[in-house]
Write a structure and sequence with these properties.
- By secondary structure, the chain is an alpha/beta fold.
- It has helices at about 10-20, 35-40, 60-70, 85-95, 105-120, 150-165, 170-180, 190-200; strands at about 1-5, 25-30, 45-50, 75-80, 95-100, 125-130, 130-135, 140-145, 145-150, 170, 210-215, 215-220.
- It has 2 domains: about 1-120, 3-Layer(aba) Sandwich (Rossmann fold), CATH 3.40.50.2300; about 125-220, Arc Repressor Mutant, subunit A (Orthogonal Bundle).
- The chain is built from 8 helices and 12 strands.
- The strands form 3 sheets. It has a 5-stranded parallel sheet with strand order 2-1-3-4-5, with helices on both faces. The protein has a 4-stranded antiparallel sheet with strand order 6-7-8-9, covered by helices on one side.
- Strand 6 and strand 7 (about 130-135) form a beta hairpin.
- The protein is elongated and about 55 Å long.
- The mean pLDDT is about 90.
Length: about 230
Amino acid sequence: MKALIVEDDSDLRRQLKQQLEQRGYTVEESDNGREALYLGQEYEYDIAVVDIGLPEVSGLDVIRGWRAQSKTVPVLVLTARGDWQDKVEGLEAGADDYLAKPFHAEELLARLNALVRRASGHASPVLGFGPLELDTAARVVKLNGEEVRLTSYEYRTLEYLMLNAGKTISKAELTEHLYHQDYDRDSNVLEVFIRRLRQKLDPEQSLKPIITVRGLGYRFALDSTDQA
């Protein structure tokens, strides 16, 4: 998942970046509202964390600007503890959730996980597709009830495809949303991840969860069995 952190406090921004990266996010950051407004309008993100009190352009105006441009990225706003007016104004500006400072890292990560899921149409943290389940909270994948051991990159690739099940995802989009900017975009590493996922999830080649759409990319092809 690709996240944008907009926070002018350098220490907090660094902590947020570290926490999200440890959770598997690819993170970009900004310390002012003007740059954040541009980034959100020009690039696609899976989630954004926005502080309300930003220099140059306020966090509220950043969100309003994104929404005016029909940008639907889920936004979590950071507010001062007990400032209910900030919370209300943030939600009215187009934010999807809020979190008061100071906060616990686990609560932040849980809220972001929920926002990403809901944006993809999944209310439950467990994504069910026939015999295959992916628990986005525990970051565990099971096939027929048995845990499938995946590397971090394999998990991230599968999670993104499952959250976008039924859609054809280009290699460029996968690379953009899953890997850091210094990732070798001309390499065949992504193809290796896909091949390994197929081997681990479909050893008998009967399930065919990930199909290749020639010239376009990959598609997660199983039907959802979510009950939520």
